[in-house]
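Next comes this protein:
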Amino acid sequence: MKSIKKLLAMILGIILINGLYTSAVYAASSVKTESHSSTVLNRTMDYNVYLPPSYSTDAARKYPVMYLLHGMGGSYNDWKRMGMQSIVDKAGGKEMVIIMPDGLNNAFYVDGYKSGINWDTYFEQELIPYVEAKYRIDPANGKNRAIAGLSMGGFGAAYHGFKYPDKFSSAYSMSGALEVTGNLFSVVNKNKYPAFTMECGTEDTLVGQMNVSFHNKLQQAGISHDYITRSGTHSVEFWNACLPKAIVFASKYFITGSSNKGDANKDGNVDSLDLAAIKTALLEESFSDIDTLAADMNNDKSIDAIDLALLKAELLK
């Protein structure tokens, strides 16, 4: 009986310690609604901003940024309603700030598609400079800036990525409405373009053929890109499954931030030094010197012996 009580006490102690680690390691991410005044559009523009877990605890750190665009008939709030916060938290890519702008219903993220709405000019000349000054963002001359979106936003991601290759290191189109305006390929420069992925469901009768057509045009022009097709429709479920891949894809081309899972000491490599860094952090109950997102191997928002075991197993592969 005493041995059972002792075992239960040990288990309770582990639970309590892990609870302390959770609160010590992670402040939660956040999604906030903000607004600013646009001279180009002559109105106040709302947007949502996702701030990663370490943003509130590491005041000296600067982050890469992704601009995440919504679809036709939607608003800046769509991705939040779809649950993007928890999806991004678990995606496993680099920590980044994510800006979700308002596409003004059906402006297609270009100038003049809807009369009097110069969204392209607003985005490039007003929104990007504004948010990158307001938040701790390091765009690194475009190398730490990505763009992604769904449907109409997939078009917007491709359009801005190809039109401004010096400003975006990557672009990700999810079920992109890629031929609606008729001028997307005209902005493609085969001599300079961002890393580009397009993903579309095989049962997407709305934009499926547009994606096949654009993929073929890129192939014929010799433009390197990833074209992902899988079972799926033009749906929230499909886009939510795309988002983690978009996060990881963008992370691959950012030049700052934790390189990947396991790189606890932030030196760009995953090796025995990371094991030592995590062990030290656990022993000292101090996590300020490690990248907690990279050290959290099982994405459970705590750093513990399980993460050490998973990293060790990864290194032994």
